[in-house]
Protein backbone atom coordinates (compact mmCIF):
# COMPACT_ATOMS: atom_id res chain seq x y z
CA UNK A 1 0.00 0.00 0.00
CA UNK A 2 1.33 3.41 -1.00
CA UNK A 3 0.34 6.64 0.68
CA UNK A 4 0.78 9.90 -1.18
CA UNK A 5 0.71 13.04 0.89
CA UNK A 6 0.17 16.31 -0.92
CA UNK A 7 1.65 19.34 0.80
CA UNK A 8 -0.23 22.54 0.07
CA UNK A 9 1.41 25.72 1.32
CA UNK A 10 -0.69 28.66 2.39
CA UNK A 11 -2.34 30.63 -0.38
CA UNK A 12 -0.01 33.37 -1.53
CA UNK A 13 3.11 31.68 -0.16
CA UNK A 14 5.82 30.81 -2.65
CA UNK A 15 5.58 27.09 -3.43
CA UNK A 16 8.51 24.80 -2.69
CA UNK A 17 10.00 22.76 -5.50
CA UNK A 18 8.60 19.58 -3.95
CA UNK A 19 5.12 21.13 -3.85
CA UNK A 20 5.37 22.16 -7.51
CA UNK A 21 6.39 18.67 -8.62
CA UNK A 22 3.67 17.10 -6.48
CA UNK A 23 1.11 19.53 -7.91
CA UNK A 24 1.79 18.45 -11.46
CA UNK A 25 1.98 14.71 -10.72
CA UNK A 26 -1.80 14.12 -11.14
CA UNK A 27 -1.61 15.99 -14.47
CA UNK A 28 0.94 13.69 -16.10
CA UNK A 29 -1.59 11.26 -17.56
CA UNK A 30 -3.33 14.20 -19.24
CA UNK A 31 -0.08 15.87 -20.35
CA UNK A 32 1.16 12.58 -21.83
CA UNK A 33 -2.10 12.02 -23.81
CA UNK A 34 -3.27 9.09 -21.68
CA UNK A 35 -6.37 10.89 -20.35
CA UNK A 36 -8.66 13.00 -22.53
CA UNK A 37 -9.23 15.62 -19.82
CA UNK A 38 -7.29 16.65 -16.71
CA UNK A 39 -8.33 14.84 -13.54
CA UNK A 40 -10.04 16.63 -10.68
CA UNK A 41 -6.83 16.25 -8.65
CA UNK A 42 -4.84 17.86 -11.45
CA UNK A 43 -7.21 20.81 -11.70
CA UNK A 44 -7.38 21.30 -7.94
CA UNK A 45 -3.59 21.36 -7.72
CA UNK A 46 -3.19 23.70 -10.70
CA UNK A 47 -5.63 26.17 -9.12
CA UNK A 48 -3.79 26.05 -5.79
CA UNK A 49 -0.46 26.51 -7.56
CA UNK A 50 -1.80 29.48 -9.52
CA UNK A 51 -2.76 31.21 -6.26
CA UNK A 52 0.88 31.04 -5.22
CA UNK A 53 2.26 32.68 -8.37
CA UNK A 54 1.60 36.34 -7.66
CA UNK A 55 5.22 37.41 -7.93
CA UNK A 56 7.45 37.13 -11.00
CA UNK A 57 10.17 35.49 -8.89
CA UNK A 58 7.71 32.81 -7.76
CA UNK A 59 6.93 32.02 -11.39
CA UNK A 60 10.64 31.80 -12.22
CA UNK A 61 11.23 29.46 -9.28
CA UNK A 62 8.40 27.19 -10.43
CA UNK A 63 9.93 27.14 -13.90
CA UNK A 64 13.30 26.08 -12.48
CA UNK A 65 11.61 23.22 -10.61
CA UNK A 66 9.86 22.04 -13.75
CA UNK A 67 13.14 22.17 -15.68
CA UNK A 68 14.67 19.84 -13.09
CA UNK A 69 12.07 17.13 -13.67
CA UNK A 70 11.85 17.37 -17.48
CA UNK A 71 14.50 14.67 -17.99
CA UNK A 72 12.65 12.41 -15.54
CA UNK A 73 9.08 12.77 -16.85
CA UNK A 74 10.00 12.64 -20.52
CA UNK A 75 8.03 14.08 -23.42
CA UNK A 76 4.64 15.67 -22.86
CA UNK A 77 2.07 17.18 -25.21
CA UNK A 78 2.97 20.88 -25.06
CA UNK A 79 -0.40 21.92 -26.45
CA UNK A 80 -1.95 20.37 -23.36
CA UNK A 81 0.60 22.10 -21.12
CA UNK A 82 -0.46 25.45 -22.54
CA UNK A 83 -4.16 24.60 -22.17
CA UNK A 84 -4.20 22.95 -18.74
CA UNK A 85 -5.39 26.14 -16.98
CA UNK A 86 -8.24 26.68 -19.44
CA UNK A 87 -9.27 23.04 -19.25
CA UNK A 88 -9.34 23.29 -15.47
CA UNK A 89 -11.56 26.36 -15.50
CA UNK A 90 -8.85 28.89 -14.72
CA UNK A 91 -7.63 31.41 -17.26
CA UNK A 92 -5.22 33.50 -15.23
CA UNK A 93 -2.02 31.77 -16.30
CA UNK A 94 -0.66 30.08 -19.37
CA UNK A 95 2.00 27.55 -18.50
CA UNK A 96 5.05 27.41 -20.78
CA UNK A 97 6.15 24.71 -23.14
CA UNK A 98 8.06 22.14 -21.13
CA UNK A 99 11.56 21.52 -22.35
CA UNK A 100 15.04 21.34 -20.81
CA UNK A 101 15.97 24.64 -22.45
CA UNK A 102 12.84 26.67 -21.64
CA UNK A 103 13.47 30.28 -20.71
CA UNK A 104 12.42 30.80 -17.10
CA UNK A 105 12.67 34.59 -17.48
CA UNK A 106 9.49 34.38 -19.57
CA UNK A 107 7.77 31.71 -17.49
CA UNK A 108 4.02 31.64 -16.92
CA UNK A 109 2.22 34.48 -18.60
CA UNK A 110 -0.33 36.18 -16.37
CA UNK A 111 -3.71 36.95 -17.97
CA UNK A 112 -5.93 38.69 -15.43
CA UNK A 113 -9.59 38.90 -16.35
CA UNK A 114 -9.42 42.69 -16.49
CA UNK A 115 -6.76 42.60 -19.24
CA UNK A 116 -8.85 40.10 -21.18
CA UNK A 117 -11.96 42.23 -20.81
CA UNK A 118 -10.18 45.47 -21.73
CA UNK A 119 -8.93 43.93 -24.97
CA UNK A 120 -12.22 42.27 -25.89
CA UNK A 121 -14.41 45.19 -24.80
CA UNK A 122 -13.08 47.27 -27.71
CA UNK A 123 -13.59 44.38 -30.12
CA UNK A 124 -17.14 43.73 -28.91
CA UNK A 125 -18.16 47.36 -29.14
CA UNK A 126 -16.95 47.44 -32.73
CA UNK A 127 -18.81 44.18 -33.40
CA UNK A 128 -21.95 45.67 -31.86
CA UNK A 129 -21.74 48.74 -34.09
CA UNK A 130 -21.29 46.61 -37.19
CA UNK A 131 -23.96 44.01 -36.40
CA UNK A 132 -26.70 46.29 -35.10
CA UNK A 133 -29.01 46.24 -32.12
CA UNK A 134 -29.95 42.55 -32.34
CA UNK A 135 -26.70 41.59 -30.62
CA UNK A 136 -26.95 44.27 -27.94
CA UNK A 137 -27.96 41.82 -25.19
CA UNK A 138 -24.99 39.49 -25.84
CA UNK A 139 -22.53 42.38 -25.74
CA UNK A 140 -24.15 43.82 -22.63
CA UNK A 141 -23.97 40.48 -20.78
CA UNK A 142 -20.28 40.10 -21.64
CA UNK A 143 -19.44 43.63 -20.51
CA UNK A 144 -21.33 43.12 -17.24
CA UNK A 145 -19.40 39.90 -16.58
CA UNK A 146 -16.11 41.70 -17.21
CA UNK A 147 -17.08 44.51 -14.87
CA UNK A 148 -17.99 42.05 -12.10
CA UNK A 149 -14.62 40.22 -12.42
CA UNK A 150 -12.60 43.29 -11.44
Automatic annotation (TrEMBL):
**Keywords annotated in UniProt:** Membrane, Transmembrane, Transmembrane helix
Q: Which residues form the Bifunctional inhibitor/plant lipid transfer protein/seed storage helical domain?
A: 17-91
Q: Where are the transmembrane segments?
A: 123-144
GO MF term list: lipid binding
Q: Which InterPro entries does the entry mention?
A: Bifun_inhib/LTP/seed_sf, Bifunc_inhib/LTP/seed_store, Plant_nsLTP
A GO BP term here is: lipid transport
Name the domain of life this protein comes from: Eukaryota
**What protein name is recorded for this chain?**
Bifunctional inhibitor/plant lipid transfer protein/seed storage helical domain-containing protein
- Which species expresses this protein natively? Papaver nudicaule (Iceland poppy)
High-level lineage: Eukaryota, Viridiplantae, Streptophyta, Embryophyta, Tracheophyta
Amino acid sequence: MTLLLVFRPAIGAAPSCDAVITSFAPCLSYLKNTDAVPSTGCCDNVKVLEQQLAEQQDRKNVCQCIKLVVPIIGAVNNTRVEDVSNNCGSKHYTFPLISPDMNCDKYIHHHPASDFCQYHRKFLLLFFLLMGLSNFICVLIFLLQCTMRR
